[in-house]
């Protein structure tokens, strides 16, 4: 017997966290009955459906995408905008993004139907680093950079220390290019940190996810992860030793 949200995640319905939301909001049935309790366990003979569509067990898929700006990091969009899933060709399985990048942010994004790996990659416990490069208005002072490196509290929410490097600056245009390395992945974290020290983001790109880079990809391109890359991600997140 396994928890219902874990079964949904392994079936490629959504990440573990998103599966929990589907359950609590009444979208999931077990043997024809709506189930909203997260502690519910099901076995191999139980019939599970989401919005009356029976789930099936799919082969795991792991894709890396160079997300362009102007694309939403969801599998479906109520406003009819282009999604990251729309950019992935020749994948029959139902995949979803691991975490998200803002609509106006570009860069490296992973998509999969492996709910366990997705959950671990987005959990701060495993401290998988993400590297961003941002163009900002203003030039961060040494004091501003020290604040970000030491960790900050913004609107009552604590943010862990981040690695910050000034890559270049333009005194005439009063702009700078900075690199941040984070492992928390909170919503809008890069933008909030930089805005808090008086350097709002003009343009943002995620260049690395752990050891993965965008090398060989153009905006909108995608590729399957190599077996060695998948093995390393699982090692980083404690799925294998």
TrEMBL record:
<protein>
    <recommendedName>
        <fullName>Pseudouridine synthase</fullName>
        <ecNumber>5.4.99.-</ecNumber>
    </recommendedName>
</protein>
<keyword id="KW-0413">Isomerase</keyword>
<dbReference type="InterPro" id="IPR018496">
    <property type="entry name" value="PsdUridine_synth_RsuA/RluB_CS"/>
</dbReference>
<dbReference type="InterPro" id="IPR002942">
    <property type="entry name" value="S4_RNA-bd"/>
</dbReference>
<dbReference type="GO" id="GO:0005829">
    <property type="term" value="C:cytosol"/>
</dbReference>
<feature type="domain" description="RNA-binding S4">
    <location>
        <begin position="2"/>
        <end position="59"/>
    </location>
</feature>
<dbReference type="GO" id="GO:0120159">
    <property type="term" value="F:rRNA pseudouridine synthase activity"/>
</dbReference>
<keyword id="KW-0694">RNA-binding</keyword>
<comment type="similarity">
    <text>Belongs to the pseudouridine synthase RsuA family.</text>
</comment>
<dbReference type="InterPro" id="IPR042092">
    <property type="entry name" value="PsdUridine_s_RsuA/RluB/E/F_cat"/>
</dbReference>
<dbReference type="InterPro" id="IPR020103">
    <property type="entry name" value="PsdUridine_synth_cat_dom_sf"/>
</dbReference>
<dbReference type="InterPro" id="IPR036986">
    <property type="entry name" value="S4_RNA-bd_sf"/>
</dbReference>
<dbReference type="InterPro" id="IPR000748">
    <property type="entry name" value="PsdUridine_synth_RsuA/RluB/E/F"/>
</dbReference>
<dbReference type="Pfam" id="PF00849">
    <property type="entry name" value="PseudoU_synth_2"/>
</dbReference>
<dbReference type="InterPro" id="IPR050343">
    <property type="entry name" value="RsuA_PseudoU_synthase"/>
</dbReference>
<dbReference type="GO" id="GO:0000455">
    <property type="term" value="P:enzyme-directed rRNA pseudouridine synthesis"/>
</dbReference>
<dbReference type="InterPro" id="IPR020094">
    <property type="entry name" value="TruA/RsuA/RluB/E/F_N"/>
</dbReference>
<dbReference type="InterPro" id="IPR006145">
    <property type="entry name" value="PsdUridine_synth_RsuA/RluA"/>
</dbReference>
<dbReference type="GO" id="GO:0003723">
    <property type="term" value="F:RNA binding"/>
</dbReference>
<dbReference type="Pfam" id="PF01479">
    <property type="entry name" value="S4"/>
</dbReference>
